[in-house]
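User: Sorry, folds how?
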Amino acid sequence: MLNHSFIKYGFVGIFSALIDYSLLFILHSFLNVSVDFSVTIAFFGSSFFNFLMHKKYTFNSNGKVHHELLRYIVLIGLSYFITIYLINYIISYGVNLYLAKLITLFIVYIYGYLFSKIFVYKNSMIKSEKED
């Protein structure tokens, strides 16, 4: 059975994806910025929103911000390199950039939730799992 934090993670993920796609579309389609740079700016722009929402809403964490932020940066770094690699790999087969980004989002979503729960916000999960 899915727990509440997984559902909340998905809800935040939808809003984060909207931010990500909006930035990507504006940068790449309107401003003609390169694929890698557009993906990079969109990725990190939505990541800031993600951190704040997951800390307070998804995992209801009251842990020390600097500890969680450092762990979150590790997650984001890993996610970034996976995202860039997968998008370039997928578009090399002729797939549209935006569809490649959508496919990549699903992959990053699953491991991102697990990594967040186990590593980033681990101290808050003991309390949260008792409530679920």
About this structure: Residues 125-132 have pLDDT under 50 and may be disordered. The chain has one domain: 4-124. The CA atoms of residues 93 and 100 lie 10 Å apart. DSSP finds five helices and no strands in the chain.
